[in-house]
Design goal:
The protein is an alpha/beta fold. It folds into four domains: 136 residues, no CATH class; 239 residues, P-loop containing nucleotide triphosphate hydrolases (Rossmann fold, 3-Layer(aba) Sandwich); 72 residues, no CATH class; 29 residues. Strand 1 and strand 2 form a beta hairpin. The relative contact order is 0.13. It has an eleven-stranded mixed β-sheet. The protein binds adenosine-5'-triphosphate (ATP). Adenosine-5'-triphosphate (ATP) binds next to helix 4. Belongs to the HerA family. InterPro entries: HerA-like, HerA_central, P-loop_NTPase. Keywords: ATP-binding, Nucleotide-binding.
């Protein structure tokens, strides 16, 4: 279907302007195409001209001609009615200028768009891109082959298109889901996990869940979509009480950060004691072992009083349930292909959460590096870790134990099969490098100007036209950009197969219920009329 004719080149090199009488089909973000001859290289090296569909994205729209202002002076009378009264034909009155930016033709060999670097000539016919072309070309994913079905295109009718993302791409080059609170971050992340746990991917996923929002993923174990022969995903939900760290799993840096503000001599004693204990190659270090070693080193170095003060700090920092000696975070228990483990950290102090992430991801990274270098390893398969409240673990001010290890993984994890997904409602509070290393971005509604700026800075390739949409997106609508897609686009995230755990509290309902409950208690026994009175308030008054 021809939707308009090219009238002239646009202001920027890649832009052109279309004149169209009808703008109903063509929304900003929509994809159109024209046919043009481009030079392509054959397998034998010869170059031939071929006609290709050259795609472009609609980036702006303005009315060029419409009814005169006088026709709209009276809100009670439509401009059409005024025109009829005056005997003027309304046919073709509305005319729009639509700006489009060339993306290019789809190159089957590259599996990507190639920009021909010329804009179409005035008079060229512009058509709406077909659903099937967009499904095929916008991402590299092949449905059913390790791909994540995430939803459809916003500017097409619901469920008319099916958009798939390649799991291999976002799980290896990292992902961010960024949006204001309540815009659908955890919903979208859960959709991705649902896709990763289906039989054609059977991923090993670890979710760090500081708000306890991912518990309903357990339903995947029974869900029809997730079963295939012997396969059904396993979902382990772990509460803080069952998550422990062995002291031997800490690094010296971890120890410094949990031991409350040690003095320089105390740091010196601790470092020496820790190094000596490490060289003894004992997997198991108790608080007593550490304290004894600290005393020994204090004696050797004439720093007895520092050692004594340090002993007290060690007790305070480590003598807690989090550091259990009998139990520890065994990677083989947490991570298996076909298993999604959710660590619910909601009752855990933020510093401890950061410590947990530091210890866990350091270990995961070490094991994966060992595997890739041919050494014995607990992790012989790639791993994907999803971090809710990502700004807590990789903050811009650098004040988190977990930041160094996450930075390392984000810059090198691709080589070693450790993928990270960062979810955050405060992109401006995330470390810049961490944000820019997440090569697939799912960006949902963002109102805060600081966060919008952080997204603009941290996310390459997303045009201003799409970023301008950010404040107006509704829950579940997202811009998808980066390595997993061939060009950024606007998508509607599909409905979850499992229930969503993180619905907002219905305060008025809970107040009512709680009030009624209190009335029923013995010393405030409710009279039957009270209940009726409450329900009568909902009845219309005669
Ligand atoms: N794709 C979607 N389809 C249908 N409903 C959605 C979708 N995405 C989000 N919602 C609805 O929007 C609301 C907010 O979603 P969600 O809990 O994921 O937000 P959030 O950004 O994670 O919020 P918070 O920062 O508070 O955790 C929920 O009620 C959810 O049901």
């Amino acid at each position: 279907m021809v939707i308009g004719i090219v009238s002239k080149p646009g202001e920027n090199t890649n832009e052109f302007v279309i004149v169209t009488p009808d703008d109903t089909e063509i929304k900003t973000g929509e994809f159109v195409y024209y046919k043009g001859d481009v030079e392509v290289q054959n397998d034998d090296g010869s170059v031939v001209e071929q006609e290709k569909k050259i795609f472009a994205r609609v980036t702006g729209r303005e009315q060029q001609r419409g009814f005169p202002d006088q026709f709209m002076a009276d809100p009670g009378v439509s401009p059409d009615a005024v025109a009829r009264k005056l005997g003027i034909s309304t046919e073709g009155v509305d005319l729009y200028n639509i700006t489009a930016t060339v993306i290019g033709y789809y190159d089957e060999k590259l599996n990507d768009f190639t920009n021909p670097r010329i804009v179409p000539k005035p008079g060229t016919e512009i058509r709406l891109a077909s659903d099937s072309d967009l499904e095929e070309y916008l991402t590299e994913a092949v449905p059913e082959e390790g791909s994540a079905f995430i939803g459809d295109l916003i500017h097409r009718p619901p469920e008319q298109t099916e958009i798939h993302l390649p799991i291999d791409a976002f799980a290896s080059t990292h992902l961010s889901v960024l949006a204001s609170t309540g815009s659908g971050k955890s919903y979208t992340a859960s959709v991705l996990i649902e896709e990763m746990m289906q039989p054609d991917s059977r991923a090993a996923v670890l979710v760090l869940d500081p708000h306890g929002e991912y518990g309903s993923l357990k339903q995947m174990e029974e869900g029809e979509k997730f079963q295939d022969g012997d396969y059904a995903p396993e979902v382990q939900i772990k509460r803080p009480e069952s998550i422990q760290i062995r002291i031997s799993e800490l690094s010296l840096g971890d120890l410094f950060s949990i031991i409350d503000d040690p003095s320089d001599p105390q740091e010196q004693v601790l470092a020496e004691a820790w190094n000596q204990l490490q060289s003894e190659e004992d997997d198991y270090i108790s608080i007593n072992d550490l304290q004894n070693k600290v005393e020994e080193v204090g004696d050797e170095k004439d720093l007895e009083s520092s050692a004594r003060a340090l002993d007290w700090r060690i007790d305070k920092a480590l003598d807690r349930d989090l550091f259990d000696h009998s139990n520890h975070l065994s990677l083989s228990e947490l991570l298996e292909p076909g298993q999604c483990t959710v660590l619910q950290l909601d009752t855990m102090d933020q510093r401890d959460q950061q410590m947990m992430v530091s210890v866990l991801f350091r270990k995961i990274n070490q094991e994966r590096v060992a595997h890739e270098k041919g050494r014995e390893s607990e992790l012989e398969f790639p791993v994907f870790g999803l971090l809710e409240e990502g700004h807590r673990f990789a903050p811009a001010d650098g004040d988190a134990r977990s930041l160094p290890v996450l930075s390392t993984i984000l810059s090198e994890g691709r080589k070693f099969g450790v993928g990270i997904g960062i979810i955050s409602q405060r992109p401006s509070k995330i470390d810049d490098d961490v944000l820019s290393q997440c090569k697939t971005q799912i960006i949902m509604q963002i109102q805060n100007p600081l966060d919008q700026d952080a997204v603009k800075k941290g996310v390459e390739d997303v045009g201003e036209d799409l970023l301008d949409e950010l404040p107006g997106l509704t829950p579940g609508q997202a811009i998808i950009a980066g390595d997993s897609v061939n060009t950024p686009f606007l998508s509607r995230i599909r409905n979850r197969y499992t229930e969503h755990d993180a619905e907002s509290l219905e305060a008025t309902k809970l107040w009512q219920e709680s009030w009624k409950e209190q009335q029923r208690e013995p010393d405030g026994m409710a009279e039957p009329e009270d209940e009726e009175g409450a329900s009568n308030r909902d009845q219309p008054l005669d």
